[in-house]
Amino acid sequence: MIAHRPEDAKIIAELLPAGTPVYVSHLPRHTLDETFMALMGVADAGLEPVPHLAARRIASREQATSFLERAVKLAGVQKVLLVAGDAPQALGPYTDGAALLRERLLADCGVREVGLPGYPEGHPSIDTAHLDKALTEKLDLSAERGLGAFIVTQFSFAPIRIIEYCADLARRAPNVPVYVGLAGPTNPRTLLRYANRCGVSASLRALAAQGMGAVRLFTHTDPGEQLIALAHHCLSGTATNVVGAHLYSFGGVERTAAWMNRCITSRSYQA
Questions:
Q1: Which band of pLDDT confidence, cut at 50, 70 and 90, is reported for residue 80?
Q2: Structural domain contains residue 271
Q3: Global pTM value
Q4: Which residue in 44, 172, 75 sits closest to 116, CA to CA?
Q5: What angle do CA 83, 39, 62 make, to 5 degrees?
Q6: If 0-12 CB within 10 Å is exposed, 13-18 middle and 19+ buried, where does residue 146 land?
Q7: What DSSP letter does each residue of 233-257 carry, written as one string?
Q8: N or C, which end of the chain has less CB nearby within 10 Å?
Q9: Backbone angles phi, psi at 107, to 5 degrees
């Protein structure tokens, strides 16, 4: 959910089970404090607020402490999604998520769990070796600070890449829950813009090579097929620590919640 529309929480609460985690983004155009009203809106609607923390966009330790203490006390926040943020230079002392974890700031403010990003297709500006090393460090730091850790993956249009990535995580960190990121239903132009921005162009190129596969993607952007592929993987008997899916709404949170509602209530998905 985007920060400047706290009123959306009441709308999606009518579509989702009580307690569903709803992530509130920390975008470049919003300060960390400006996300607070959205967190309160989510909590008041009976859903679980989960703030994004973009480390490079936090101006100071004092700002982070003040925000987290309020979020925990007033909005009931228990978990956060910790990312570096895509700012070319850090606004304050935190150059990446690990820098926040090293300070024990999250646990000291009452946060209990931390979500860490995973990249099935890699990162547009960080090589795989560094990504793997950074994830290992953040998992170790989380454990040292008494924080539960889970992984939320970037969305991808190639189910096989997601499954391979999750299989690798099951070997490397078998006790860490994984939520697989899926691109929520949106219009083709928005989907393409976010895909290029988020570094998932590899699966886009693969789809383009398939011809009609790409046409189908950009005229019927429904993540149902990827959800079914993920379900088959989870039911295959292969070792996995996948526990759920994370829907990226691209600003269309009501549309995404309506799609989730259809999945929950549809006989075809239940079967």
A1: very high
A2: no
A3: 0.86
A4: 172
A5: 60
A6: exposed
A7: HHTSS----EEEEEEE-TT-HHHHH
A8: C
A9: -65, -40
Tokens of 92: 């304050």
Domain for residue 3, yes or no? Answer: no
> Which domain covers residue 119, as residue numbers?
8-266
Q: Is residue 1 one of the residues assigned to a domain?
A: no
d(CA 119, CA 242): 14
Helix axes 159-172, 224-234, angle to 10 degrees: 40
CA distances to 81, 155, 158, 211, 238 from 204, in Å: 26, 12, 8, 11, 27
Sign of the torsion angle spanned by Cα atoms 171, 80, 25, 8: positive
**Spatial contact of 103 and 62, defined as CB atoms under 8 Å apart:** no
> DSSP of 193-243, one letter per residue?
HHHHHTT-HHHHHHHHHTTHHHHHHHH---THHHHHHHHHHHTSS----EE
Query: Average pLDDT over the chain, rounded to whole?
Result: 84
- Please tell me which of 69-83, 182-196, 233-247 the model is most confident about, judged by mean pLDDT: 69-83
Q: Which helix (H) or strand (E) holds 48?
A: strand 48-54
Cβ atoms of 105 and 141 closer than 8 Å: no
Q: Residue 237 has what pLDDT?
A: 74
Residue 24 lies in a domain: yes
pLDDT digits (tens, 9 = 90+) for 155-178: 877 777 888 888 899 999 999 999
∠ at Cα 110 (107, 113), nearest 5°?
65
The CATH number given to whatever domain includes residue 137 is 3.20.20.220
218 has pLDDT over 70: no
Count of domains for the chain: 1
